Amino acid sequence: MMRDTDMRKTSSKSELPRAEKTRTRAAHSPRAFRSGRQTLAPVQRSARQSVLAKKSLGQNFLKHAQTAERIAAAAPITNESVVLEVGPGTGKLTRALLTRAQKVVAVEADERLLAGLRDTFAPELESRKLELIHADIRTFALEQLPKGYQVVANIPYYLTGELIRRLLTAQNQPSALTLLVQKEVAERIVRSKKESLLSLSVKAYGEPEYRFTVPRGAFSPAPKVDSAVIVVRKISRARFKNSEEEARFFTLIHAGFAHKRKQLAKNFHEAGLSVSGLPERIRAEDVPFSEWLKRAKQ
User: What residue numbers bound the domain in which 292 lies?
Assistant: First the structure.
């Protein structure tokens, strides 16, 4: 099995585009104001309460129920599914998921949001169709979830790589991911003709699909870039015969992308890996996933 340190490189700052951080920057609405070192922008939490989006948590809440409905509809969930929602926020996506899934486990790191969520979803909490947990998803015990659970989330941009790594490499992997991420990251994973550590790592465990674009105006406060919904289906370790093969795959891709501007053969040679069968001038980004996997099995 690959080590955490291997996949962590996938979510490094060099891998995700610079615009990744823009979703956590100060809101530009006239209603935004500075409080200490954090920028807070007011958004609605319920008919009776409001909450301030916190910059330090990268919060950008969905403004419209229709967007939440589209995200929930894109997820391959049924009335028998258990869904882990990361960061329910003001509850728009939570509401849409509750109409489709058997149960929703919502993990929220921001204690300020919990009272509003408990008030809004009191009946669902009482019936245990919804479980609301105050925790950081980076330390939340995924082992407590049933096998075959799914993840649906509108996550802060800065958490994208780290969260994908944690979920895909967990002992208790989800069966599918439906994530609202930065559009550029979604295109890099699914649509780009050039591979990357992130795209190869996702394809190693599942089948990614670009579903639709969500414009920046669909959030409050609005980020500076558009977002997109991706779905990763059929998540498993079935592509690898054993943990050694899995580890070798990640050793190869990390060696191949060690120096992006160098040719693959030179990177492999520096890492002490065989260069047999490699085209002379090819770069790591030009090698498709199937070839990386084939080489890991040799």
Answer: 243-296
What residue type is assigned to position 175 of the chain? S
For 9-37, what is the mean pLDDT?
Answer: 41
- Determine which of 16-25, 61-70, 162-171 has the lowest per-residue pLDDT on average: 16-25
Decide: 54 and 40 in contact? Cβ < 8 Å.
yes
Residues 6+ apart with CB under 8 A from 18: none
Six token digits for residue 56: 């330090």
Joined tokens for residue 217: 């105006």
Give the helix/strand (H/E) hosting 207.
Answer: strand 207-214
Query: What is the reported pTM?
Result: 0.80
Per-residue tokens: 112: 């300020």
Query: 205 near 239, Cβ under 8 Å?
Result: yes
Residue 238 within a domain = no
More confident of the two residues 9 and 296: 296
CATH code where residue 112 lies: 3.40.50.150
